[in-house]
Amino acid sequence: MTDDRRQRYADAIGDFMARECTICRSEYDAADAVIALADEEQREAKERYREGLRRADEHNNALMDEVQRYADGDERPVLWSVYNQMHLRAATAEGAIEWVRALHKHNEDAGYCDLCSGHGDITWPCATVRALDGTGQQ
In angstroms, rounded to a whole number, what is the distance separating the alpha carbons of residues 25 and 16? Predict the structure, then answer.
């Protein structure tokens, strides 16, 4: 857990305790305050993930259209800079895929993805790894 995340959780508990716990009913009330923060973090992370996938999909579609035009003979690269740009785009995309794959690690002991298990996906491979592998949805 990062120090920043730890501080946010401590603040959530402290805010709850100051606001709600003149006489605490149970430790579950404090846990609910922390879970609410964790749920919000997960919603934000999912939204960032979806936005990244959307941008990657748009980028990939544009690249595939460009490659198809070359393959059809409708267009020809006029300079090596076009080839170099395409190569850079592919290398960047491959790097991004490897980065995402590294985030989604198989927990050998538990049998699921450590990252996705926090939002209910307790399978392996998780939906993200299946998407990267092209094996489809659940």
Answer: 12
